[in-house]
Specification:
- The structure is a single chain.
- It is built from two helices and seven strands; from the N terminus they run E-E-E-E-E-E-E-H-H.
- By secondary structure, it is α/β, with parallel strands linked by helices.
- The chain has one domain (about 15-100).
- Strands 1, 2, 3, 4, 5, 6 and 7 form a seven-stranded mixed β-sheet that branches.
- The radius of gyration is 14 Å and the shape is globular.
Length: about 100
């Protein structure tokens, strides 16, 4: 079994698509301590969340994450998520971008 990686400041991101009925969810968080996956304070975008058991989240790649608090919730469309992931934007940074862009971008 893979070790559980401790995360902090987590946000559960729901990715909505007009092309599919389902909504994918991923975690955005920072590492709470150094691990083989990253250093303390670095940002993480997980793969798709497959299972939630209290503070423990299992993702598609069979990684296990332990959250130190209930994650915030954040809804994005596919375009916004791709922008976040490619540029490593946090949910707060994406909110700032939303305010700057014209309606219906």
């Amino acid at each position: 079994m893979r070790p559980r990686v401790k995360l902090t400041n987590a946000t559960l991101i729901s990715i909505k698509s007009d092309l599919e009925d389902k909504v994918e969810q991923v975690l955005y968080a920072t590492f709470a301590e150094d691990s083989k996956n990253g250093k303390k304070g670095e940002a993480l975008f997980s793969t798709k969340v497959m299972e939630v058991n209290g503070p423990e989240y299992r993702t598609f790649g069979a990684d296990f994450y332990i959250l130190d608090a209930e994650p915030q919730k954040f809804d994005v469309d596919v375009f916004e998520f791709n922008l976040m992931h490619e540029c490593m934007y946090s949910p707060n940074e994406l909110l700032e971008l939303r305010e700057m862009l014209p309606a219906g971008y």
